[in-house]
Amino acid sequence: MKISSDELYGDLSGEDPSELEAALGRSLAPRAATMVYDEFAGLGVGPENLVLDAGARDAIHGIELVQRLGCRVIAVDPVPLHFERARGRVATAGLEDRIEVVQAGIESLPLEDASVDYIWCRDVLNHVELDRSLREFARVLRPHGAVLVYQTFAEQTCEPDEARRLFEATASVVQNMSAPFFETTASEAGFEIVRTDRIQGEWRERMLEDGKWDVTADLLALSRLNRRERDLVERHGRA
């Protein structure tokens, strides 16, 4: 949409903003991030099921799944630090009999064919070889099993140079940030996408409404980081 300066400083600036401000001031009853556990439960996960937590980090999600749903979990992550933290967190939770922690990449899972009932995969697939990972998911998943993926994608309006800088800084594979590429790759691996849910800013809305995110502090830190970039890079490195 293109507007003229007459519209911007005349018609638009002259409008009474109260109705729009009132609309934007009303809560849209945003869901919290915990909705993902409810979605996973809706697949039918129960105590008799074995779940693969693919890219488990410190097993925080795997532990929550066991506590909520009673299932057993294999928590897989390739990063040594994550592996050690996951083992420690599982031990602290007293769930060593329900959660097995394995150090491995999801492109080559050390699991037998058709050995897990469900797969949980959150914030991982932007970092990996997507085709190999999804084919591994298909290999280890039992017939009629299901996968829940939470994944960040880039909109087509993302400016190319900003996208490059962002993806490099977050160790993200460029093509994996495309929703159409993901859908095509999943189909080629043998999956059918049965439902998608665009979260957009909903979780952040909920965090702000609940007072659990101090966005002002984050913006202040960002501004200070930008103004002190040279000094901070010298002290802490570019990454």
Could you list some keywords that capture this structure?
239 residues; 5-stranded parallel beta sheet; 11 helices; 46% helix
Question: What does the model show?
Answer:
With 239 residues, this protein is an alpha/beta fold. It has one domain: Rossmann fold, CATH 3.40.50. The protein is built from 11 helices and 5 strands, in the order αααβαβαββαβααααα. It has a 5-stranded parallel β-sheet, sandwiched between helices. Strand 4, helix 6 and strand 5 form a beta-alpha-beta unit. Helix 6 packs across helix 8. The longest helix is centred in the middle third of the chain and has 14 residues. It starts with a helix and ends with a helix. The mean pLDDT is 94.
Q: Between the first and last Cα atoms, what is the distance in angstroms?
A: 37 Å
Text of the CATH class:
Alpha Beta
Strand segment count: 5
Q: How many separate domains make up the residues?
A: 1
Q: What is the 3D shape?
A: globular
Supply Rg: 22 Å
Q: How large a portion of the residues is in β-strands, by DSSP E?
A: 5-15%
Low-confidence stretches: none
| Main β-sheet, spatial strand arrangement | 3-2-1-4-5
Order of helices and strands: HHHEHEHEEHEHHHHH
